[in-house]
Amino acid sequence: MSEYNFCYKYPHPAVTADCVIFGFDGFSIKVLLIQRGIEPFKGKWALPGGFMNIDETAEECAKRELEEETGLKNASVEQFYTFSDVNRDPRERVITVAHYALVKLAEVKGGDDAASARWFSMDEVPRLAFDHDRILRMAASRLKERICFEPIGFELLPEVFTMTELQNLYEAILEVKFDRRNFYSKMLKLGILVETEPRPEWASRRMPTKYRFNAAMYAELKQKGFRLEF
Amino acid sequence: MSEYNFCYKYPHPAVTADCVIFGFDGFSIKVLLIQRGIEPFKGKWALPGGFMNIDETAEECAKRELEEETGLKNASVEQFYTFSDVNRDPRERVITVAHYALVKLAEVKGGDDAASARWFSMDEVPRLAFDHDRILRMAASRLKERICFEPIGFELLPEVFTMTELQNLYEAILEVKFDRRNFYSKMLKLGILVETEPRPEWASRRMPTKYRFNAAMYAELKQKGFRLEF
DNA sequence: TAATTTTGCGTAAATTTAACGCAATAAAAT
DNA sequence: ATTTTATTGCGTTAAATTTACGCAAAATTA
Fold it and tell me: What are A161-208's pLDDT values in tens digits?
């Protein structure tokens, strides 16, 4: 008896979910890739992801595969585009629902179909398997759009951070430079930042103020959106 | 011999493409629906759409189904979300790549699996088949977001139109009211409008200036985006 | 015939943005 | 040890933009 036991009247494509996971090390944007442990493209770097089970949503699939292949748990992934070109995959017709997430950098390890997993700076990413180069490019461009209309950073930065670190994050994503003093006042005016402790009188200029996010205000701005013109 | 001839090692979901087609009649936003001619949900209204062929992309499928079911050709559809809830469809596991498009109102007619097709005002839309209510809601919300960052109207308005018609369009989509005089100057400043003919000296106030879009400028703004703050 | 509506064209005040100055001092260079 | 450079906080000012209206001409409606 054949092992091909799932039969349909009409041909069905396979469906996968892939993940573009962004992180930030204080200076530049990183992306999490896995090295494929099986054919096709064995040995090549690729986005984490894999075939959808018949009883899970695309988002559930993305989270499951991400954890299986990299060890990263509870990322809050969001789908951004479905790639359905006919010859994306040499094995069979496969369409993929691509997701992205912003996470704090964490230790990752290969697992399941992934021989290994690690963070890459955006400018050191090698040629990827399948059409994953294209998927990554689109994710980066969506990230740029998003940063202008809702606050990010909460997901990417440590609990406590300086204004300079926040500015570095924005500059890394948007690939531009801002005037430090204007950035400073614009961010404070948004009201999503709170000083971690009152700055002492004697504090030196080289002990920068530390901030954390005001979660309530952050969520509200995320909800209703804003405009960062820069 | 069974008619179930397409067999796989693992279960595969079916994939469909659905279309949310928006139009504008000068006063309010319309959406194009079809009445289902076959089970399930026979007789219910639904979004145009259907199963993807194995050799076409989701976008091609959306366009094909749209033409088959409503007669509308060459709509420039764009995908906006993939719905993958497990029990969306009573027949089998179906995930759908939802698309939307802005078109000039045109005569439509039912065809193929659609008993009939017609335009509905957004506030007279009945309960739809499947999870199409949810899909429609998300499309409307995406349309609202989009209108603030890139010009629309070219797709929705007739060749030649008045400033008041353009304002009605924006007000209908965003569900707000603008000051006529500020809207007027803001739009002119964008540079995407050209007067169809020099306004004669003797023109009365009740013969409003007619505009058309400056295609080149329109495309450029579409490309690089802008911010309509309002 | 009088009141109302629509359209084009302004204008002034309030707000926001953009560009940059300056002092204190830590860190690095000489 | 001394000088130079870099970082941080806290401004200021001019330009640009947004917002809230005013007003008149003419068509429409009452």
Answer: 999 999 999 999 999 999 999 999 999 999 899 998 766 656 666 789
Let me know how long chain B is.
230
SS3 per-residue string spanning B73-133 = CCCCCEEEEEECCCCCCCCCCEEEEEEEEECCCCCCCCCCCEEEEEEEEHHHCCCECCCHH
pLDDT at B163 over 80: yes
- DSSP-assigned beta bridge partners for residue A194: A212
Name the DSSP class of A53: P
* Position A150 pLDDT exceeds 90: no
CB contact under 8 A, A52 and B9: no
Write out residues 20-39 of A within 8 Å (CB-CB) of B: none
Mutate to test the interface with A, among B79, B82, B94 (most CBs of A within 10 A): B82
The rounded distance, in Å, linking the Cα atoms of B41 and B113 is 12
Cβ-proximal residues to B5 (8 Å cutoff; 6+ apart), any chain: A7, A9
How far apart CA A147 and CA A155 sit, in angstroms, is 12
Whole-prediction pTM value? Answer: 0.91
